[in-house]
Specification:
Elements lengths: L1 H4 L4 H61 L4 E12 L6 E12 L13 E2 L4 H8 L5 E4 L6 H8 L3 E10 L5 E10 L7 H21 L6
Antiparallel strand pairs: 1-2, 1-6, 2-3, 4-5, 5-6
Helix pairs in contact: 2-5
Length: about 220
């Protein structure tokens, strides 16, 4: 019946069936095993990446908490630069900055949700100085000459801000470690200033890792 359906005699049909079961069949099974193995490898890689990300984020959070407690800081935060979309009608990426980690003292409100997708252009004067090699900047909100920046910080009850650049090992400017003094005149001691500056360098590796940079 099978041979007549395909217009072939029984012998040819038997050869084809033998070929399909003896050669093609095992090849298909091998292909399926390799395919499933590849999928398993991808799943394991994603799982490891996720675990690594969580562990790295924990280290950064603990580091900020230690700084906040040790030096009695009102708020300490870490921001990262990222692409916030494309300019229309071209394809050039818009540079933005978001705070991704924050530690606050008791009674100080969290600010992280207000500090998302901020245009880098808004902070261009400050970022230019940090990118040119300044190890830190101090912003006194009351005497800040840029009214927009004065309003940006003053409207949230901030009196002074310390900014430390986060530079990755390849030399890229990838973020900012910041300290806010809220509703009080806060000044960093020399030892605190030096420790936070060092911490900014130490955190650069973790920040770069979260961005997907290979530091090896």
């Amino acid at each position: 019946m099978l041979g007549s359906l395909f217009g072939l005699n029984f012998e040819y049909t038997a050869v084809i069936v033998a070929f399909l079961t003896g050669v093609v069949g095992p090849s298909v099974l091998v292909f399926i095993r390799h395919y499933l193995s590849g999928k398993t490898s991808e799943t394991e890689k994603r799982k490891k990446d996720f675990i690594h990300t969580i562990e790295t984020q924990k280290i950064v959070n603990e580091t900020l908490n230690e700084l906040q407690n040790k030096y009695n800081l009102d708020r300490v935060w870490l921001s990262q630069f990222h692409n916030g979309g494309n300019y229309y009608p071209g394809n050039k990426g818009m540079k933005k900055m978001s705070v991704s980690f924050e530690s606050t003292a008791p009674g100080i409100s969290t600010d992280i949700m207000k500090m998302q997708n901020l245009p880098v252009s808004f902070f261009s004067s400050l970022l230019q100085k940090l990118g040119e090699g300044h190890e830190s900047l101090v912003v006194n909100v009351d005497t800040e000459e840029d009214y927009a920046l004065q309003s940006f910080w003053g409207g949230r009850g901030i009196n002074s801000v310390y900014l430390f650049p986060v530079i990755c090992i390849q030399g890229g400017f990838i973020g900012i470690l910041g300290v806010d003094f809220v509703k009080r005149e806060g000044v960093l001691s020399t030892s605190a200033h030096e420790q936070i500056k060092i911490t900014a360098h130490l955190l650069s590796g973790y920040v770069a890792s979260l961005c997907g940079e290979d530091l090896k």
